[in-house]
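Pipeline run #58 for the internal structure catalog. This entry was flagged by the ingest filter as a single-chain record with no existing model, so it goes straight to prediction. Upstream metadata was stripped on purpose; only the residue string is passed forward. Reviewer on rotation: M.T. Logging verbosity set to normal.
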Amino acid sequence: MLKRRYTIVVAESSGLERKVRVSLGPVLMVVSAVVTLPVLIGLGAAWKAKGDVAALYENQRALELENSNFRQATAALSGQIESLQAAVTDLGARSALEPGLAKAMANLPAFVKATAMGGGGSARAPKVGASYAATLAALTSPDDTFGLLRTLLEGLESRLSLVKQSVDRVDALAAATPSIWPAHGWLSSPMGYRTDPVNGTSGDYHSGLDIAGERGQPVYATAAGTVTFADTQGAYGKLIVISHGYGLETRYGHLQSFLVKQNEQVQRGDVIGRVGSTGRSTGNHLHYEVLANGTLLNPLRLLTNQKPRDQ
């Protein structure tokens, strides 16, 4: 059927006729091509659009994942920064010593301070980076930026850790420094050479302070420490000895009674006994001594204007 030929006759006004013979197959092929080509073009465009939309969805998912990672990284960095701010605030509050106590600590022997601070040298903080400018210039992506920020914050945390260690040591030494008056009353005899109050002979060396007061008045620990002795000992009478660490020791003699026992932990200002006149004594008073590695210190160098709390 497709092989059939048709004759098309075209008559002109002049009376001439033109005849064109056409075959059905080629005509149908041309018509089919004209009809099919737009459909194929449309299908191709639809497939391309579908691919573009899929790529957009893939890019969107990648961006959402990246944004989620950035939000997590930002939250982690914010947490680190808040933690550092809290640490700085805490260290600032803890490092502020009462002026009198700071002065007493300054009057401690050098070896006591060196022992408390861990030796003569100070620890150095690790280096965070050799050149921040070079590092910043090398940043090419947000990941690099977050990585640098994390490195900087970790470096600051390391430095703050070292500062905290130093503050902890200062706090510990401050707690161990005998700085308050051990009893209410008046200074009846300072440290040094004097006339012996019992037999009146000259040249007697007094190893501490005598603080006169009424019998039974409270006696206070002048710093935090451990009671190493609470018993009667010769001329001291009833004696309490407290070890404060770093080689520091305080002694409280001529007591009427004990309110602590051996190995008990005490804090500065705790009542440990009562004023009395036991041992070699001429009246009610407290005999108070301070020693550093067994060597007597003048307690007046360490005493501040802070009085023991009333009971």
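catalog note: The chain has a mean pLDDT of 79.
catalog note: The chain has three domains: 5-62, 95-176, 186-301.
status: ready for reviewer M.T.
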